[in-house]
Amino acid sequence: MPHKGMQQVIKQAKRFNWLAAGRRWRKTTLMMSLAVDTAINGKFFLWGAPTFDQVRIGWNEARRAAGNVFTFRQSTMTATLEETGGMIVFRSMDDPDNARGHTADRVGLDEIADINPIAYYEVLRPMLIDTGGDFFGKGTPKGRNWFFREHNRAKSLDDSMSWQVPTKGCRVVDGELIREPHPLENPDIEWSEIVNLFETLPISTFNQEILAQFIENEGAVFRNIGACLGAPMQSDHAGHTIVAGLDWGKHKDFTAISIGCVNCKHEIARDRFNQIDYTFQRDRIRTLHNKYNVGLWLAESNAMGEPNIEQMLREGIPVNPFATTATTKPPLIENLALILEREEWQFQDDPIWTSELEAYERKVSATTNRSSYSAPEGMNDDTVIARALMVRAADGSMLWTSY
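The structure assignment produced for this chain is given below.
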């Protein structure tokens, strides 16, 4: 049974809903309530979570709540209400393609902060187009990634709603924990449990995990991103020097292309695609090359990159290779980070490309004390590398080097 806070969330909901809530607020129980209600009304609910183990948590909770009414089939991970034809489909988002092909009247994502944004932007959001269905994204914050951005964005949209709910209402004043009831808090949590957590957790962890605050990730690489998203979608760059960065991919990874104007210091075009043959990929690259009159491509040469670069050269496309290694990657990424910090370039605003910048992480080896850079587990960094290569190609020292 939903507690009073959950009931208020359901009453206040709009079409697109983003709930940041502390641990043990019972977010999964809320999702179960929404899913069952959808199926009772003869509709289709798609339930997504970051991993299969987390999907199974929702599956088990739904079985406990409705196992005597719904028909649960583990082989297909579905729950069907025969009387109405309504259905709940449970899918792991570790591979966003797990959900492709479905049509949904309502989509719910559990622990959304850990889900690859591609799952929402490219797979789940489009499946609501023809049904006019609604969306619920719920989770405890994890830094300031795409969940943070959509949570904030919802505040300015008429069809969207966002909530920031602590496990139990309180605030920290001068290092002391003060009880301050919140109308949406979980009433079943004992205050003494929250006090104990406050006394044992680092304050930043407590603020994130219990107060549901979006804490800036200390390992975040790129800052000042929002100030650098002003590049116009269309502009005249006739006679200007145009460069491009290219990161190769084929199956789960993506080939990403960033094209920029050296004179204006604007990103003027982007492309991103996967699951197509390299011959078709090069055709797509050639089209972009001719359209924008690119003077230099800087392309990752690792693995499949080298033979593709050789073929591009045979076709008359000016391209330099970049071998991404533990030595070359840090300065490449740090150069892009410095450019963003100083607002030296303006990039086009795109939710997936921006999310990959926001989520990018720096880790320091305990043995070598060296920095390494990568996307969080389950996310991609193709667009980050493409942009980093593009601004590196814009460095005058690279414009006339050869392969």
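Interim note for the steering committee: The longest strand covers residues 266-273. The chain has a mean pLDDT of 90.
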